[in-house]
Amino acid sequence: MYRTATLGALLSLMLLVSACTAKDEPKSEGPAIGEQMDYTETGANKTMNAYEESIVEAVNKNRFSLVEGLLDPAGPLYAQQEGLVRRLASKNIKEKLIRYQIMNIQKINGEYKFYITEKIGVYYPSGRVDMNEYEWIYTVKEEPNTGKTRVYSIERWE
Q1: For 146, left (φ over 0), alpha (ψ -120 to 50), or beta?
Q2: What is the CATH number of the domain that holds 74?
Q3: Single pTM value for the model
Q4: Is 149 among the domain residues?
Q5: Is residue 88 part of a domain?
């Protein structure tokens, strides 16, 4: 009797252990609608971070080429920033990136929308200094064949 009870207990224990350790293969259905994704390690994020630093350097050195490779030549921001670099340099205005923060990133059909707050110091030849804060939505496009990302456009975030 003792043997039968022990054997039954062992068998029950084995079934319990095997049931607890059985794993289902995860389904690869992609994110659920409305689920937050982490895009911080994407090429688009690296492009956006490089752009934030490079545009200020391009303005201060009057060298659009420092930011040009991060901008999509087909996008409106390319010509806008080329003009900005030229215009501020002609007035000897310098900038300093005080801070920027990526508040949100959304990806739709190969386009990333970066919701960013920026604080920029603007230094005039007269000695005047302005601290400007902005809220922008940048669009970064991803080339489907190469995966290369470039900043395409900017709009006010209201």
Answers
A1: alpha
A2: 3.10.450.50
A3: 0.74
A4: yes
A5: yes
What DSSP assignment string belongs to 67-83? HHTTB-TTSHHHHHHHH
Rounded Cα distance, 55 and 75, in Å: 16
Name the residue range of residue 48's domain: 37-156
The answer to whether residue 136 is domain-embedded is yes
Of 114, 117, 96, 94, give the one whose Cα is nearest residue 105. Answer: 114
Instruction: DSSP letter for 27, please.
Output: P
At 136, list the tokens: 């922008």
Q: Please list the rounded mean pLDDT of every run of 10 residues in the chain (158 residues).
A: 48 47 43 49 87 97 98 98 97 97 90 96 98 97 91 95
Given a contact cutoff of 8 angstroms between Cβ atoms, the answer to whether 101 and 114 are in contact is: no
| Residues 149, 122 contacting (CB under 8 angstroms) | no
